[in-house]
């Protein structure tokens, strides 16, 4: 029996584990870095131990400090969450040596599934279908290129120790292979300490469907049905749902049985996920899926499985770790449909660059019927450069897929408000409302194929006009539809507001003739709705009861929320233009991070789009490219250096110079 549990993680998963442990009467211990000293998981736990500086490699990834914290507090078990040390076999062994229960599978199972090349060989022996490719030990670059050429493009280069989309590159043609391989190996070495890769055939129209499995120490392995995680961006999951759209009982039986065989092949105990790449070019087929990898831990998207099965997976993890048994397969049943959306601190308009800063406003849809929120941040907290930029997971359950989608859209529309940190809320809402998604036409290239629809260049000008009208009525206490309100007949008949939207300056002007945005007139006849006041917030609601805009007072002006995205509105003269990330003569750091490489020096001639530098921030590698043809005038950073957002890293000589 576990009496005291240390959670070797942070953020929402640490909070999630603490909730289940508390319900079971288990005392909890949190660990934290400098950046997390005041984080919610620290406040929730019964005890908390400081384990080092903010960078994860100096705190959450230092096994010795985690073990010492457990021993010092008398914790008899450690839950690793996901990421960090969760799939580290050496850490699991260290726990055992110190007589501490590791809430997860055996070190041997982690090792067997941790390296993708060995795992695929093991799966072939177990009769689990695998994707064609090269999974051998020869890591010579020329040899790997020949293998890719023989397999046929497109191919996927994948780190053998990888996960979470790290160390993975799709290569469309032979000429691009060498550069992709080098980048993939560098990211793999940085993220996992192992630069070895494997090569796989890239399945066209692929879907990503995974099966939740659970084993115990008594030899029993069951599945908890499937999840569809096909909507991804850069191999990172965005929306996950259970069950998978279009899944038949025949295909479900084949896929779930294969997942159970995969777990049985390594005597698996605990929570695990077997991931399959699925041919989505037509109807799902029993012979149309291939083993991709097994994650030997709890997944980020586990709440959708909990909502359709009624099981608490963290509770089950703790029970199994203490010697308990998993339920019988016939005791596990599907009920309804669940969808999870990952709310990230990132700006889709700037290419999904992470957004950092203090969460001065954080509204989440907690307490709504059929909606669950898992979060590890709070209003007043800070999103830093050191960790994954997830703010929350919003999960909706319904009697069917249509109801789950509607509930999730309503939750995002009505109850999500974040400022000044930017989020992907509007992007999520548009993805959920897309007719192809509603029809179940999901595949891993969905977001890329519909990017222009999912990430418009900014909020529609109509919404800014609506916001200006709301603002006019809020400031003057009069009818906002009367565009002459507050105007003097013998004065300049206009009021102007400045908006900073995604780095773009928008000027909204009210005159007796109507409203214009950046000089373009708006057709006010298209604006139909009504005003209401909710708790001091003036809201503009469309006639179909969709919230279009809300306005409330803020110390720097008025805060307008437009479909989940907040914009601070100041007096026109006080509005400040946002600097471009890469101007005509300068390549700037898009956010705080570490320089991985610099490939140019002063005097070098460069062409538009050429990679000049690579930096790493918030677990993401970013290539910075030349904004135009030119000559390098100055290089202001060095490899390994920490840089701040907006720092000029490379400067180009003015046109005609150099």
Automatic annotation (TrEMBL):
Keyword field: ATP-binding, Biotin, Ligase, Nucleotide-binding
Residue intervals of the Biotin carboxylation domain: 1-452
Domain spans labelled Lipoyl-binding: 574-653
Coiled-coil annotated residue ranges, if any: none
Gene3D superfamilies named among the record's database cross-references: 2.40.50.100, 3.30.700.40, 3.40.50.20, ATP-grasp fold, A domain, ATP-grasp fold, B domain
Domain ATP-grasp: 120-322
Cofactor: biotin
Keyword Protease in record: no
InterPro entries registered for this protein in UniProt: ATP-grasp, ATP_grasp_subdomain_1, BC-like_N, Biotin_BS, Biotin_carboxylase_complex, Biotin_carboxylation_dom, Biotin_COase_C, Biotin_lipoyl
Protein name, entry field: Acetyl/propionyl/methylcrotonyl-CoA carboxylase subunit alpha
Species this protein is from: Glycocaulis abyssi
